[in-house]
């Protein structure tokens, strides 16, 4: 039964490794966690309590040591960078200061606005909403209102100053 328990632990760890290589938390991850928990339960129930608990603790120490060794090997071979994102977003360079920046700006529609679409404002593309009218592609528009997270525009020929 100890062999079965260790095999179940190994299967669970392999499934967790597969999960680490796949995005999200899906079937391999859930199945791996269940397999590891079942391995621990079988070990504790099959053997006398203290001996079973000792085996489970040895398994946990072994898994932790193996994980540490794998981490060190990946770090030494510089493969860990494929798993860990170290870049940060610099808000000072990329932040435009909120949508109020667009108020009164003029741009060109990149898509037809029915009523939603996108427009170009001096090289910056933004999702916009027309004031209810259909606006064709490559028409000059002006931002007339900011409503929550929506940029509302009118065609320049319709804008009244």
Short key terms for the protein model shown above:
single chain, 161 residues, alpha+beta, OB fold (Dihydrolipoamide Acetyltransferase, E2P), 5-stranded mixed β-barrel, 4 helices, 19% strand, elongated
**Ranges with pLDDT <50 over ≥5 residues?**
91-95
Spatial ordering of strands, largest sheet: 1-2-3-5-4
Chain oligomer state? single chain
Strand content: 15-25%
- Per DSSP, the total helix count is 4
* N→C terminal distance: 84 Å
Helix content: 40-55%
The number of distinct structural domains comes to 2
What does the largest sheet look like? 5 strands, mixed, barrel
**Mean pLDDT level:** 82
Radius of gyration using CA atoms only:
29 Å
Assign an overall shape. Answer: elongated
Folded structure, characterized:
- Residues 91-95 have low confidence and may be disordered.
- The chain folds into two domains: 2-82, no CATH class; 95-158, OB fold (Dihydrolipoamide Acetyltransferase, E2P), CATH 2.40.50.
- It is elongated, with a radius of gyration of 29 Å.
- The longest helix is centred in the middle third of the chain and has 28 residues, at 49-76.
- Helices cover 45% and strands 19% of the residues.
- The chain has helices at residues 2-21, 27-46, 49-76, 91-94, and strands at 106-109, 116-121, 124-130, 140-147, 150-155.
- By secondary structure, it is an alpha+beta fold.
- It has a five-stranded mixed β-barrel with strand order 1-2-3-5-4.
- A hairpin with a 6-residue loop joins strand 1 and strand 2 (116-121).
